[in-house]
Design goal:
By secondary structure, the protein is an all-alpha fold. It has 19 helices and no strands. Helix content is about 70%, strand content about 0%.
Length: about 500
């Protein structure tokens, strides 16, 4: 174990919060920044593109709604680029092409060298390309924009795998639900701020300001993170000795070592609970990416919200999603600690709630027609229920294999991210006229995907440590009252030279 420097011990007294909580907060802000940079284009594209004029739909109903009279302005009907719906779908999906590529490498790098720099450099590169987006659009149009979005995805693809490694090294099992949900909840808050502030900025400033603002925040986060956070408690210079000892007792001494055993790919890829986890991730991402990428377009093209109103009402569902995601983390921890359910069944219940509920309310919103209040309420309930995923299948990689949590998260998130490429493009193909009837079909397809994948997870998922984790099992005291719950395994104690 590395000797803690005297200056670090002296500095530790100035930190009121434990370092694992500081790490969780910075992890939350990492995902928040990642999502604001990811989603701001979904708002900006509504003012960049020339809108189509739609007539009645084939069923005799309105193809689109009457423009709102909010903000004393018209709906977002301006634009200078004549991009088809299919091309817009390709632009919005291009981010995920790069995002998929760096998932597995990001997880492997984080496990071998630590999550700190894998996460930090990924966010920094995403921020740089976000700030270059206006130049790409103005100089190269859609082609350069697609390239820039792919490069952004390459940087952001390391985010979740690196954070999984950091959480495995810093968060004890009995705090995993609340701190894990806090960190992962950054996605909802980032989507809220990305939509809400983008609507305000697009209504107030020229559209490039959106990309400069969110990219700049990413750079600021990078500077703070590299000073405050470290890959593991053992390497942290100003962690309190009492916290270091507590974490060592709870999850073992975590370090980095060139002798880390090879990743057991065959065992992982042939594991049935892993297959169930991948299915659940596909379902979550299919529904989530349709909403996060295309909800602003639905609000603008079908409901005809004005620019500022679009930003406001596109963000409301994610406010509810964030509240539920954090609350469900506390509920999940309480259920496990009190012995109401074991980890496996808790994850299944949360995942089922997060899939079946959104599927129903998503379709219901499409049948609400032009009743804007009802549509927003239904979408808000839909995304609120989806927040339970973050106390469900999103924590399964940490449950199944603390040692290879980064790899498991990389595999599941990477495969799930394929839907990020497919769904925006598919939506563009399925909605060439951006009518209500075309969008209803989109939501029915999402309904089917969410139901099928949740059923698979409910049958075969597991919240227990899997054999491929290859951990050293050592009994220790854990404050869980469930009789069926086995003592949590320590992570492998990896020595780090002094």
């Amino acid at each position: 174990m590395t000797q803690q420097p005297q200056w670090g011990i002296s500095l530790s007294k100035y930190f009121v919060l434990p370092q694992r909580v500081i790490l969780a907060i910075m992890g939350f802000l990492a995902i928040l920044n990642a999502y604001t940079m990811r989603v701001c284009l979904s708002q900006a594209i509504t003012v960049l593109v020339i809108k189509k004029n739609s007539s009645e739909s084939e069923d005799g109903g309105p193809a689109i709604c009457e423009a709102d009279d909010l903000d004393n302005g018209a709906s977002s009907d301006s634009g200078i680029y004549d991009w088809t719906e299919e091309l817009q779908g390709l632009i919005l999906s291009s981010f995920y092409i790069g995002y998929i590529v760096t998932h597995v490498p990001g997880g492997l790098l984080a496990e071998k060298f630590g999550g700190k720099w894998t996460l930090a450099l990924g966010i920094l590169s995403t921020a740089v390309f976000t700030m270059l987006t206006p130049l790409a659009i103005e100089e190269g149009g859609s082609d350069w924009l697609i390239v820039t979005r792919v490069l952004m995805g390459l940087g952001e693809g390391t985010t979740f795998p690196a954070l999984s490694v950091l959480l495995a090294a810093w968060v004890p099992a009995n705090e995993r639900g609340k701190l894990g949900a806090l960190v992962l909840g950054g996605g909802q808050v980032g989507t809220i701020l990305g939509n809400l502030l983008s609507g305000v900025f697009l209504d107030t400033y020229e559209w490039p300001f959106v990309f400069y603002f969110f990219g700049g925040l990413g750079v600021v986060w990078f500077v703070i993170f590299v000073f405050l956070c470290y890959s593991d408690p053992n390497s942290h210079p100003f962690i309190k000795p009492s916290e270091r000892e507590y974490l060592s007792n709870e999850i073992g001494t975590i370090g980095r070592n060139d002798n880390l055993p090879p990743t057991p790919w065959k065992a992982i890829l042939t594991n049935l609970p892993m297959f169930a986890l991948v299915c659940a991730q596909i379902g979550h991402d299919w529904g989530f990416y349709i909403m996060v990428t295309d909800l602003p377009k639905y609000m603008a093209d079908v409901l005809q919200f004005s620019i500022k109103a679009n930003g406001l009402y596109s963000s409301l569902p994610y406010v509810m999603m964030w509240i539920v995601s954090v609350g469900s983390g506390f509920v999940a921890d309480w259920m496990i600690r009190r012995g109401i359910m074991n980890t496996t069944n808790t994850r299944k219940v949360m995942t089922g709630l997060a899939a079946f509920g959104p599927a129903i309310f998503m379709v219901g919103a499409s049948y609400a027609g032009c009743d804007r209040v009802l549509v927003v309420v239904l979408f808000t309930i839909c995304m609120g229920l989806m927040g339970a995923y973050y106390a469900g299948m999103k924590l399964s990689p940490l449950d199944m294999s603390p040692n290879y949590a980064g790899t498991l998260m990389a595999i599941t998130n990477g495969i799930g991210a394929i839907t990020g490429v497919v769904t925006p493009y598919l939506v563009g193909v399925m909605t060439p006229n951006a009518t209500l009837l075309e969008w209803r079909t989109v939501f029915w397809v999402a309904f089917g995907v969410l139901f099928i994948t949740a059923i698979v997870y409910s049958i075969w998922a597991s919240g227990e440590v899997q054999p491929f984790n290859d951990a050293i099992i050592e009994p220790r005291s854990v404050d869980f009252e469930a009789e069926e719950r086995k003592p949590q395994p320590k992570l492998k104690a990896l020595e780090q030279s002094s």
